[in-house]
Each structure stands twice: as C-alpha cells, then as structure tokens.
Amino acid sequence: MNISKRTKSVLGSILLPVVLIILWQYIFSAGYIASAILPSPHQVIKTFIIHFTENEYSFHIISSLKRVLSGFFIGIVSGFLFGLFIGLSRTAEKIFSPSFNAVRQISIIGWIPLIVMWFGVNEFPRIIIIAAAAFYPIALNTFAGVRNVPREYVELASVYGYNRLKLITRIILPSALPSIATGITLALGMSWAMLMAAELFIPTNIGIGTRIQIGREKFNMALILVGIITVGSLGFAMTSIVEIIAHAADRGRILRKEI
Amino acid sequence: MDIIVAKDVRKKFKLKHGQQVKNNGIISNEIDALGGFDLNIKKGEFLVLVGPSGSGKSVFLDIVGGLSAPTSGVVYLDNKPVDAPSEKTGYVFQQYALFPWRTALSNIEFGLESRGVVKEERIKIARELLSLFGLSDFEDRYPYQLSGGMQQRVAIARALATKPEVLLMDEPFAALDAQTREILQNELIRIWEGTDTTVIFVTHSIDEAVFLADRVAVVTARPGKIKEIIEIDLPRPRNGDIRSSSEFAANRHKVWGALKAEVNKAQQEWKLAPGFTD
Ligand SMILES: Nc1ncnc2c1ncn2[C@@H]1O[C@H](COP(=O)(O)OP(=O)(O)OP(=O)(O)O)[C@@H](O)[C@H]1O
Ligand SMILES: [Mg+2]
Questions:
Q1: Residues, CB-to-ion distance under 5 Å, ligand 2
Q2: Chain B CB within 8 Å of residue A249 CB
Q3: DSSP character string of B34-63
Q4: Which of A245, B14, B111, B275 has its CA 20 to 30 A from that of A128?
Q5: For residue A39, is it within any domain?
Q6: Chain-wide mean pLDDT for chain A?
Q7: Which residues of A touch B142 (CB under 8 A)?
Q8: pLDDT in tens, A61-75
Q9: Is there a domain that residue A3 lies in?
C-alpha cells in the first residue's frame, strides 16, 4: 500500500518530463525545427555522456555544488540569526526591519557590479550573492515563525517559571520550526537560482554556468541544454533532500499533512 | 483553614477608544468585570464557580492565578497576597492547549522542567499520572494523535505534575461531548479524592458543578460578585451512580434556583444592547 503510493507519486512526477521529451523528439524527427535552434534529445544525451566521461564535467558540477552550498549555509545561518533577533526584540525590529524591507526590494543581481568593484572578480563575491539570496527567505520565515508563536504558549511557560533562554529553546524555536523549515527550503531554491547569476555575471572558468556560457559562445545548443538540465535536476534533488530532512527533524509533528 | 481568601476584589477594564458599555445604566468607557468579589476557600476543598457568561469567572481565576492584577482588593494564597504566578498553583485553562511538538509524556513533564527536577524523576512522575488517567499506552503520542478527551486528560496531568496546592480549572471539559465529559468528571473526582489539592473549577454545567463540588459558588451577572454559596451535601467518595439519585436532583434544584435570576439578568442586558436581535 505504502510502496504503491510512493511509486505512484514518483511516476506522477516524471510523467510530464517524459511526455515533453517524447514530444520534443517527435517535433525534431518530423523536421519542424532545425538542430541549431533546438537539438534533439538524442544529441543532448550524447553530449551529456561525452562531457561526463571526457570533459571533466563532474569537476565543474562539484565546483558549482561547493559554491552554492557555501553561499547557502552562510545565508541560512546569518538569516536565521537575524530573523530570530528581530523576531525576539521589538526594538531590534523597529531599528532593522524598515531598512531590511527596503533593501529587499532591490534585486540581488543589481548589487553585483558594486560587489565586484569592492571584492574583485573572484569566488568571494559569488558566494556573497548566493548567501544574500538565501538570507531573505530564511530571515523572513524565521521572523514570522517567532512572531506567530501563540501567546498562550509563552504565557504558560512564564506561569511555570521558564527563564528567557528556556523560553526560546523549548517554546519559541520548536513552535517556529515549521516556518523555519519552509524558509530553508525556499532559501535553497533561491541559492540555486542565484548560482547561475553568480557564474554568468562574475566570470569564471569553473562551474556549470560557465559550461552554459561556453555552449553559447560555440553555438553548441546541446551543451547549453546539458547545463540547464544538470542545474535543474541537482536543484530538485537537493530541495527534495532538504524537505525530507526538515520533515524528519520535525518527527512528523507539525509539518504533518494530516491536519 | 482557608487557603484562598479573596477580599473585595474589583476589576475594571479600560475599553479601547470609542468603545463604551453600560454599567448599571450609566454609560462608561470602563467595563466593571468584578464588583467586590469576596470568597474564602478551605484547604483541600473542591469549589465550583457557576454564573452567567461574562460575569467575570475567568477574570477571577486569572487574578487568583497571578496572571492579572485586581484593580482593587486582594487575593491571599496561604496568607500571602497573590501578585504573580505561584509555584503552588496549577493551571488547566481552555486556551492552554498541549504543545504539538511534545509527546503526551513530554507535555506532562513541561511544568517540572523549569523547577530543576531531573529527567528520570520527571519521567517517573509523568508515567504515574499517565497510568492514573489510563493513558500508559499513549505516552509517545503527539497531541494530534490523541482524541479530545485524551488531550484534556494530558492537560490535567500536566497541571497535576507539579503537585500544586491549588488547581485552577476554567471550563476544562467544555469542548467535550457529553459522554466523554461524564467519564472525565468521574476520573477527576476519583483522582482528586486521593489528594489534598484545593480546586477552583469553573463550569456552565449545573450537573457538573453538583457532581464535583463540595460547595458551589454562584456568581452574579456582571459586575461579578458571589451571590450565594451552596453546600453540596452528597457523600464522598462519589461515583457516576450518584447522578441519578434524588439528593442529586435536590442539589441541582438549589443551584439552578440561585443561578436562574442571574442568567436572566445577563440576558436582559444583552437584549437591551444596541444591535441585538432575538
Ligand atoms: N482584557 C479584557 N478587556 C476588556 N474587557 C474584558 C477583558 N477580559 C474580560 N473582559 C470583560 O470582563 C467581563 C468578564 O469576563 P470573563 O471572561 O471573566 O467572563 P466569564 O464569566 O469567564 O464568561 P464565560 O462564562 O463566557 O467564560 C466580560 O464582560 C468581558 O467582556
Ligand atoms: Mg470564562
């Protein structure tokens, strides 16, 4: 029962991609589209295999993974602390929140020229913008989670003499956990999106984004698609992992779907 | 010996700008919730408060629990004025739900964690209480996996875990169906009869009041004060059978007699209120 349910959901999620690939192959075979505009699935798979076996593609993947994970971790740790801080202190909220919300309106990509002028063209600004992309959703969701702790929980804790530290660790954080988990999942998606910007706008020789760039320069459409599919699949896989971890950490308590 | 003494307790709430209320026909922007509440409660007594909705019962319980300060007057607990929540007090309020991220066992441990009770001891106390409520097999369940009645048992167990001298219960069974409610009343009375805890229990159910109480205190329509105190002369230990006895009916009758006029008065006040349609 359980297994068939899971199989069903896996089948469901790959249904659309499979249909699209079949459609794609069909359009190509029927001769509707020139291969310079859109290569065939067959070509893409061939390019994929060639690059993975011969052209150190995995090295680029690992470099991009390191880049995105570094930014992501810096972003979620600092974003969590910031969200917790302005969530716990009304004064801190008054001081930081308006500026934070104003700065948030500016696309991170808009900061890239400034950041590059400060730090130069190297790995540091790339990680910084990925971290910034992860920072916003986790900060906002942590803040919301902390602020939405039911008043009664806090009151009950104070009635039973909980001090501030225990109140935070035993009441506020557990209560805010589902919201924080949502923030982490969103932050991961933002980090992956920003990885492309980081690699395309702050030039480098290493990374999946640069492979896409090279594909463009060489008019190698298949190479571009390999890059896009790789990023998409990795992002999807990592988001799924994070969701599973978040669910497990919650021990099925609050993220539960039944309620 | 009186463990709780309330002396001329009054409570006014300032309303928000633009809101107003009639107190004895006079329009005001302050609402009189309690108007001179006097009540002495004996140690180990089970006292039930009944009264019309909005008569200040919950407000009184908040004051006894140190959650809110009276506008004037004073409540003594063990001869000391109450000005903050006390370790001697346990709380079973409707709004105090169980923590959804804690198991039944861990919810019961909650009140002990801030009092330096070590883990093994906490678990021992929590297990004893679970077994007292017949919930031993459910210690690892989260609240959403428990029925409403089970959740309420755990909430009572959580309050009892700290061995309070005074237990404040504000309509703890109001959300339960009639059958579960009777079962929980039976369990509560069985467990309470084995302790020397003083209980102040608020309910809208006269049957519940008569079944549980040593004394039923009837509260007047707002501003609330004690109208009458009725001794319930039913023998203890009590069990469910007593509900169908003629003594029970007689006590029930007495309580309703005292309460009826107040409920009507409160209803009359609503009918006079602008916007009320019957
Ligand atoms: N924080 C508050 N601000 C303003 N008015 C309040 C506040 N708390 C209670 N009141 C008012 O005080 C009166 C008494 O309220 P209380 O909740 O004690 O009634 P109650 O007897 O518990 O009613 P019920 O049986 O419906 O629970 C009500 O008229 C209520 O509107
Ligand atoms: Mg009430």
A1: B 58
A2: no
A3: EEEEEEEEETT-EEEEE--TTSSHHHHHHH
A4: A245
A5: no
A6: 87
A7: 252-253
A8: 999 999 999 999 999
A9: no
